[in-house]
Design a protein that fits this description.
four-stranded mixed β-sheet; 207 residues; alpha/beta; Rossmann fold; 8 helices; binds guanosine-5'-monophosphate; binds adenosine-5'-diphosphate
Length: 207
């Protein structure tokens, strides 16, 4: 079945579990897609580019966007605001694209409640907590206290795996990417109620 409208693939998981690495690994193999660039108040990290990894704004600007109803969802994560702007997502969905979200567990709850019939969700985890800590330290983009806060958060986030359609344990990156490609393909053919009705109407082409 060819879908006219797009679909959403949510990736969540503790910071350092490998969401960005996995996305980079599969992004060129999963067809027409749009990576939703979130807006955040967190400080920019070394190597990050404004407008590519995030739209970096101050708290005043973020709150203005909240007041103007610009976000599909937003959350306060690790002491900073993060949000998904609704406009580019709507546009990409209209164009039939697979929209990729890297958002936290709170964001997934909102997206699933609002757009559950076109959303597939994946939780990405490191094999163990100690491996997560090791990776965050090796990434060396965050100060020690930031890493400690993220590790503490990870213990809470991991309790919510059951809210997701799939779990990928990112032990071997290549193997994990292979599974993510398969899930991305499946996410595209998830049918919404609207699409089912449309399909049945066009399918019934004889009396
Ligand atoms: P996230 O986007 O979830 O915060 P990253 O993709 O930045 O996580 O990964 C965190 C760190 O772990 C990075 O330095 C990355 O290179 C490394 N990493 C990711 N996946 C693996 C893996 N399967 N094995 C070893 N290191 C990994
Ligand atoms: P980081 O600071 O490591 O880039 O991201 C921290 C956390 O914020 C991650 O769990 C990431 O998935 C989440 N995040 C990033 N953008 C958004 C967003 O727009 N909305 C929500 N709810 N979470 C986000």
């Amino acid at each position: 079945m060819n879908h006219k409208s797009g679909a959403i693939l949510v990736l969540s998981g503790p910071s350092g579990s490998g969401k960005s690495s996995l996305l980079a690994e599969v992004i060129n193999d999963i067809g027409e897609c749009y990576f939703s660039i979130s807006t955040t108040t967190r400080p920019i990290r070394k190597g990050e580019v404004n407008g590519v990894h995030y739209h970096f704004v101050d708290e005043e600007e973020f709150k203005k966007d909240i007041d103007e109803d610009q976000f599909l969802e937003y959350a306060f994560v690790h002491g900073n605001y993060y949000g998904t702007s609704i406009k580019p997502v709507k546009k990409a969905l209209k164009e039939g694209k697979l929209v990729l979200f890297d958002i936290d567990v709170q964001g997934n709850t909102i997206v699933t409640n609002r757009l559950g019939d076109i959303t597939t969700s994946v939780f990405i985890s490191s094999p163990t907590l100690s491996e997560l800590k090791k990776r965050l330290e090796a990434r060396s983009t965050d100060a020690k206290e930031v890493i400690d806060r993220r590790v503490k958060m990870a213990r809470k986030e991991i309790q919510r795996i059951s809210e997701y359609d799939y779990l990928i344990v990112n032990d071997d990156l290549k193997k994990a990417a292979k599974i993510l490609r398969i899930i991305a393909i499946a996410a595209r053919v998830k049918v919404s109620d609207n699409e089912i009705n449309e399909f049945i109407q066009t399918w019934e082409d004889i009396d």
